[in-house]
Amino acid sequence: MRSAWSRWDWIGGALLLLAASTSSVAAEAPKFDGRGWTVGNHQKHARQSLTEYVLPGQTVENWKELVTSSVFSQPVPLAAFVEKLHSSLSQGCPSLVWNVIRQDEKTAVFEWRDAGCGGSEPQNELDRVTIEKDGLYRLAYAAKVKGPLAPERRREWLAILGQVPLAERSVGGTSQAGEPAASAPGSKARAAAQQLSTDDLAAGVRRSGWTCPAGVKSEVKGQMPGPQGPLTTWLLDCSNGQQYTVLVDPSGSMSAFQTPK
Fold first, then answer.
1. Which H/E stretch holds residue 39?
2. Is 203 exposed, middle or buried (0-12, 13-18, 19+ CB in 10 A)?
3. What DSSP character marks residue 73?
4. How does pLDDT run across 23-65, given as a tens digit for each residue?
């Protein structure tokens, strides 16, 4: 088993996994945790793209850790997507352990593990799925280990999933990594994303399902490319002692995740 994505399909053809041939490319990969990830496989179709990242000495056919970025140009209801994936993974896999970490109308972050099903090795996976107007974006980290992920590794990858942009480019589009999409708002919208108050950010954290009674201080940490234009990264300290990374897109939409201590 290479990833959860290869273990399920949509009833009625809402999404199709295409049987395209595997190809290795020498494209530049995101740094993730800084261990030298490279693109081991990239496939693209008019309505779907798939990129798999591997560590040095590993391949998409023989890996111990794998990062997968998938984009579908057809948006679907997020709750139905998550439930369908859960149901599909559960079939024939009594050892499956499933946990939804956070879910709202646009984004779901969940994790699952098994003891080895269908002749595959035991596996853990952390997933982030986001629904946008132009499609569905998925980023996942998988590791072939028995039992739960080590707490430190789990915290690290949850933070990475919260900070990496949705995808390097949109399916069927012409926007390149680091360049705003043609339909992205202009400089005024980007400037507005950098002028939010601490109270605004605290409210965004609460809308994302996290606890932040009140914001104490906040600061802009930089920008990164996103499918709708640059994402502004904020660091927010809350009155309960928690610290959050908040990503703000040009429209003002926010995604928040706890910052590892």
1. strand 38-45
2. middle
3. S
4. 334 445 577 888 999 999 888 877 778 889 999 999 999 999 9
Cα–Cα distance for residue pair 133/76, rounded to 1 Å: 10
pTM of the predicted protein model: 0.60
For residue 22, the Cα-to-chain-centroid distance in whole angstroms is 22
Q: Does residue 172 fall inside a structural domain?
A: no
88 and 148 in a common domain: yes
177 in a domain, yes or no?
A: no
Cβ atoms 103, 110 nearer than 8 A: yes
Look up residue 234 and give its two tokens. 């904020």
Residue 125: in which H helix or E strand, if any? Answer: strand 123-132
How does pLDDT run across 163-214, given as a tens digit for each residue? 776 654 333 333 333 333 333 445 555 566 678 899 999 988 888 778 899 9
- DSSP annotation of 6: G
> pLDDT tens, 58-108?
999 999 999 999 888 777 788 888 888 898 888 889 999 999 999 988 899
Q: Of 241, 217, 130, 228, whose CA–CA distance to 173 is shortest?
A: 228
Output the domain CATH number for residue 132: 3.40.1000
The total number of structural domains that make up the chain: 2
Q: How far is CA 100 from CA 85, 104, 108, 135, 158, in A?
A: 12, 11, 7, 21, 12
How is residue 169 written in tokens? 């480019």
